[in-house]
Structures are given as C-alpha cells and as structure tokens.
Fold:
Amino acid sequence: QVKALIFGHTHRWEFREKDGIHLVNLPAVAYSFAKEQPTGWTNCVLGEKGAAFQLNTHDKAHPWHKQKKELAWR
Structure:
C-alpha cells in the first residue's frame, strides 16, 4: 500500500526510488548543509495516480526555484 516516503532533516532536495517506493527528501527551511542545496518549502498535491511537488526557494534567483517534480504511483 505504501507509495512514497516523504522525509527531511537531511537538508537535501532529492528524489529517489527503491523497490517501487518513491523517496522524497525535502530541503531545509532555514539552514543548508551544502552550498548548492537551497532553503525553502515544498508544495505537494497528492492524487489517485501520483503526486506533484513544487520547490519554493527563499532565494528567488536559485536555479531550482519553482522546480516541479511529478511522481506516478506503482
């Protein structure tokens, strides 16, 4: 029944998949451990067939600002 594991605390914006389960790593909201990693928040819309994520970075000039990622459920 599990479709995705959404987690944070590692301060990385990252998507992976293991055995058909999506692993969604959320960015830090205040302090980044790596220069290339942004700080910000993520919007998520869950649906019957998948999920859509959008990253909103504090730094609007960051190349990942407004980046979108769509996942399809297994």
